[in-house]
Design brief:
Number of domains: 3
Number of strands: 0
Radius of gyration: 20 Å
Order of helices and strands: HHHHHHHHH
Shape: elongated
Length: 153
């Protein structure tokens, strides 16, 4: 594939949805584009705002929290896998409202509690903690929320 075709395909790829540099690099590598060529393609995509890491990170954080019910730990880890770090990552995570964050944790725990009823109190508590941690919520939020929920059992 020549550079012009790769640039055209990469621009179309970025136009369909928000992408980060790492996503585009992987796609270009999959297409067999040379490293020198894809460096120039990435630079052009960045300069023309086809790729904007801050915009991507903000949308990613919002969507993973709102639709997937992920906590900040899991979101942070996934974005670091995509080579997004530093202020861009932290600023995007700060856009999550604290009240909405604890509310989402509470909703997820209540939903999980309905699935675990019938077990003894300690097994239920352990299941809820494991579940919340797997969703990426912080332990200092999980433990009080689980204790509050378990009191009613």
């Amino acid at each position: 594939m020549d550079t012009k075709e790769a640039l055209s395909r990469a621009a179309a790829y970025c136009s369909r949805q928000e992408r980060c540099v790492d996503d585009v690099v992987r796609k270009l590598q999959g297409w067999g584009v040379d490293e020198v060529e894809y460096g120039a393609i990435i630079e052009w995509l960045l300069s023309e705002k086809f790729i904007d890491e801050e915009r991507y990170t903000t949308f990613y954080v919002r969507d993973k929290f709102k639709f997937n019910g992920w906590g900040k730990v899991k979101i942070r880890w996934n974005l670091k896998q995509k080579k997004i770090k530093g202020a861009t990552l932290e600023n995007a995570l700060e856009t999550i409202d604290d009240h909405a964050y604890t509310e989402k944790l509470q909703q997820l725990l209540e939903s999980k509690l309905k699935q675990t009823e019938g077990k003894d109190r300690y097994k239920t508590k352990a299941a809820l903690i494991r579940f919340a941690q797997s969703r990426g919520f912080e332990p200092d939020l999980i433990f009080p929320a689980v204790e509050k929920l378990i009191q009613n059992i």
